[in-house]
Amino acid sequence: MTPEIDAVRALEVLDSRGDPTVRVTVESAGRFTVPAGASTGSHEASERRDGGDRYGGRGVREAVAAVEGEIAGAVVGRAVDDQAGLDAALRDLDGTDDLRRLGANAVLGVSGAALRTAARVAGRPLYAHVARLAGDDESVNVNDLARTDISVPMPMINVVSGGLHAGGGVPIQDVLVVPVGAPDYPTALEWAWEVRRAVRERIVADGHRPLVADEGGFSPPSVERPADAFELVRDGIAGAGFDPGAGGDLALAVDVAATHFHDPERGAYDLGDGDPLAPEAMVERALEWVERYPIVSVEDPLAESDWAAWARFRERAPDDLQVLGDDLLVTDPERLDRALDRGAANAVLVKPNQAGTVTRALAVCRRALAAGCNPVVSARSGETCDATIADLAVGTGAGQIKVGSLARSERLAKYNRLLAIDDATDAPLARFEAPPGPGSR
Ligand code: PGA
Ligand code: ZN
What is the pLDDT of residue 1? Predict the structure, then answer.
């Protein structure tokens, strides 16, 4: 007999920023804690907050009550291994496109806890269970997966933070390293650690304190302009004795998060270093960064609404540049299709709480891979030590993961889970490669 979902419990706990979030436990086995963004896209699934005075309005007691009341009433007794059916039922029960009625944090909490319960009940590692769901293929032999078919995702590791994650400073959000030349996952982490140490030493030598931002990256006052951030990290790579660049040891990546310094009324981008830029000038500026620094991946170089400028950027960017959509695509299969049609992006950030259910996040990975577009599984800036997305990245074969810096336990929980998977499976490290994808020249 197929095991069923039994009691569903929820609890308001606090995330890495000290903000309330929803933790759901399916009593028999699975627990999942929902993350939260700060630089959110306006088309994301909608989390539910209580308002009022508690936690500055950010309490989640209503979402918790929705899980234990209406949602539990609808899902208790469902087969535990029918993830797609459960997620469709949750969506129907909510009845809105963006899950605002029950709250995407309530819905994803249950979806994620059910995923973990199903893996536990089946006696499979979570990544193997995800691989089976992601492939949507009963014939996938999960026992073989452990040796042959999986890879450990290439990490994209934050070193310098700005924007909404650092309370100001440089307006671009993350400058990251991608250990493109590392032979395996543990070595990739070691190399990134060396670079991070070199950057830290430089910050201290410049007379600043190496304090960290929401995702564990540094945000020293010496970094005033985007170029300062790129130079600091590039020099950190070289200073640690590595070769910076796409064909070298570690390359740079950037999350511009341009939606958050874009004024939609004037259509202008304010980088804080001169007059605000029109979309065409912002395209030029981002292209200049790519030309000048060893950057292999650019996320959100333009705002979530600026489709035409995205397409122009992609047209003019080098063919082998990864152009990654976060706020633009919000883990939404339809927005991904639109981006592929228009040639706006060749990679998609995958954040389960933007999607609202596990099934929808898996669908985005599957659709991206089928279209020759890179999925990059990502954490949020507000996280807990829940490491589910590490297994999600392995199980979907996404090939890349972005979970912040090598600091703060909510970040390390994911890196450490991947170390354990690497150890258990001997899976190779996925190679970094920008896909040609539709629309490329
Ligand atoms: P967020 O940022 O979790 O604050 O939205 C992460 C990102 O932009 O990639
Ligand atoms: Zn982003």
Answer: 65
Query: What mean pLDDT value characterizes the chain?
Result: 94
List the beta strands (DSSP E) in 270-398. 295-299, 322-325, 347-350, 374-378
Ligand 1 atom nearest 35 alpha carbon: 3
Q: Which of 43, 173, 261 to mutate to test the pocket of ligand 1 (most atoms within 8 A of CB)?
A: 173
Using one digit for the tens of pLDDT, what is the confidence trace for 95-135?
Answer: 999 999 999 999 999 999 999 999 999 999 999 999 999 87
CATH of region 154-425, choose from 3.20.20.120, 3.40.50.1980, 3.90.1300.10, 2.10.70.10: 3.20.20.120
Note whether 8-123 and 154-425 share their fold.
no
8-123 belongs to which CATH class? alpha beta
> Ligand 1 site: residues with CB under 6 angstroms?
37-40, 173, 255, 257, 326, 378, 380-381
Q: How far apart are CA 268 and CA 263, in angstroms?
A: 5
Contact status, residue 133 vs residue 143, Cβ threshold 8 Å:
no
**pTM for the full model?**
0.96
| Structural domain boundaries in the chain | 8-123, 154-425
Active site residue 414: no
Rounded Cα–Cα distance for residues 399 and 404 (Å): 16
